[in-house]
Request: fold
Amino acid sequence: CVGDSITIGSRSYLGYPEYCGNKLSIETNKIWNVYNHAVAGYTTIDLARSIDQNLSNIKACKPEIATILIGTNDLKRNTSLDTFKIVYEQVITKVRLIVGNNNIVLIEIPKLMEGVMLPYRLEMNLLVDQYNNIINSIAKQRNLLVCKLKTQPEYFYDGVHLNDEGSKIIGDQIAEYILKLRRN
Reply:
C-alpha cells in the first residue's frame, strides 16, 4: 500500500492497510503480509520520488497486489490538474514495476468531512472531485481498478485523517473490494 498520512494511519494506531490485510488473512485462510509505504505530508510527487529511492526494497517484498491512495496533500499545495495527472501516472508506472502486473487498486481520495481543520476547507472537495475524475480516467485508460470508499464524518479524527474506527472500516471496505474481485 502506498500513500500519505491516511494510508500510514497518522491519527490511528493501525492504518487501513493493516486492517485490510488482517481481514484478507481471515477470509482467505492465508497470511497477507502488508507493506505500508506511506509518509504523512507526502504529495503525489513526494511519493513518486520515495518509490524511486526505495524501489528495490519494496520490490524485494514481492507484492502480488498494490493499492494507491494519494492526493490529499496536493489539495493544500493546490497542485494543478495537469501536474497531478502527470505525477499520478508516474506513481502507477513505478508501482507496476514493483508488482509486475495490473493488480493495482487505485483508491479515490476521500472527501473532506465536517470539522476539517485549516489549511483544509470543505470547498476543496471540488478539487477532490477533479482529482478523482483524473484517477478514474487513468484507470480506464490503463485497465486498472478503482475503489470508491464509503465514508462518514464519524470515521475521521479531524475531517481528513481516519480515526481507529475509520481505519478499520476503510480497511474492511478495501478487503471486501479485493475479495469480490477474487470471486468474480
